[in-house]
Write a structure and sequence with these properties.
about 350 residues; alpha+beta; Lipocalin; 3 domains; eight-stranded antiparallel β-barrel; 7 helices; about 35% strand
Length: about 350
């Protein structure tokens, strides 16, 4: 995009071009600069458009310079590059967060974790307290206090009656998404949040988070029936302009639709603050009704939690709002879709 060789690009960032051309992830154990290159790569990948034409080199130059300055500050302060995640917006503003350490630290945080089952019709938050292999406090009836649990990778098994398995599909430092089940054919979508995230929700998305990008929409077509197997649906949404989006249900041809974006504020209870959220309204127009889209003519979604590459939204439905997931990560979307089934 910038008509530079890899050597020239490496020099612009004060990086070793030979190291940049090698497997720097594998070399991190023996070469400290490899960690720096990996941090650049993790941050810059998120800046790239879905196609070459969707990239904005001048904007990305601003982002990369901001990233370079931030990483130099981290280096001056002797910060371990493997412990942080950086996100740079189009204005060149850098957001730094702690890198995810794993499922066990997420659960065992010294305070309750809030758990919701959004698609069973009533959004009731449950609380579970995890401490060194024991659930010391539970608001879920069939999971008693002092019940044992085990964590292996992204899976947790609880020795309740019946025994419960939780397979996590996405994990950040303050929220996670996965399936919870005691019957493998009936996987409930589960959203796990820290206390702070649950109590202080609100999103600051902009139209630029979507225009020129591809997002993947996941929902359960079984909707609010918790006694039947889930029917996951995956839809690719390619936002071409500020008004045009291409809609492609999994395994089918895409079609053109219109969309709009609006920022709003919640109407809070007297003792609660108003919180920002955003609404995405996709109108399918004359496209035939499609079972993979719930035989609906539109998607009207309101965000309530957003992180780097995953957004949780309420989608309008005749019975009650459905919780749906948007992710910009294609591999993650396909993994969530396949594991949900």
């Amino acid at each position: 995009m910038n008509q530079q060789t890899l050597d020239e690009f490496a020099a612009s960032l004060n990086l070793d071009p030979a190291l940049l051309k090698n497997d720097y992830v594998a070399l991190k154990a023996s070469n400290p600069e490899a960690k720096k290159i990996h941090l650049y790569a993790r941050a810059m990948t998120k800046m790239l458009g879905e196609t070459l034409a969707w990239n904005q080199p001048e904007t990305q130059k601003i982002q990369i310079q901001a990233l370079k300055s931030h990483i130099q500050t981290l280096e001056n302060n002797n910060v371990d590059f493997d412990t942080v995640t950086l996100v740079v917006n189009k204005k060149g503003e850098v957001t730094q967060t702690e890198r995810v350490k794993g499922l066990k630290p997420f659960l065992e945080r010294g305070e309750p974790v809030f758990l919701e089952f959004p698609n069973i019709g009533v959004r009731i938050p449950h609380q579970l307290m995890f401490e060194a292999g024991k659930i010391t406090s539970s608001s879920i009836g069939f999971i008693a206090d002092d019940t044992s649990y085990r964590v292996s990778g992204m899976t947790m098994t609880v020795d309740s009656k019946p025994a419960v398995t939780a397979k996590f599909l996405y994990l950040s430092n303050d929220f996670a998404v996965g399936n919870l089940f005691y019957d493998a054919s009936k996987k409930l979508l589960a959203v796990w949040q820290t206390k702070a995230t649950f109590q202080e929700a609100g999103t600051q998305l902009t139209a630029d988070d979507f225009i020129g990008k591809r997002w993947y929409h996941l929902r359960d077509l079984a909707e609010f029936q918790n006694d039947v197997p889930p029917i996951p649906a995956l839809t690719q949404l390619t936002f071409i302009t500020g008004t045009t989006v291409m809609v492609k249900p999994f395994g089918e041809a895409e079609f053109q639709a219109s969309w709009s974006f609006e920022s709003k504020m919640t109407t809070p209870a007297p003792d609660k603050p108003a919180l920002p959220y955003q609404t995405i309204n996709i109108q399918f127009g004359d496209a035939p009704q499609n079972p993979k889209l719930g035989n609906e003519t539109q998607m009207v979604m309101s965000s309530y939690l957003a992180r780097d590459e995953v957004i949780l939204l309420d989608q309008e439905h005749e019975k009650a709002p459905l919780t749906v997931i948007l992710t910009s990560n294609e591999a993650l979307a396909e993994a969530m879709y396949k594991n949900w089934k």
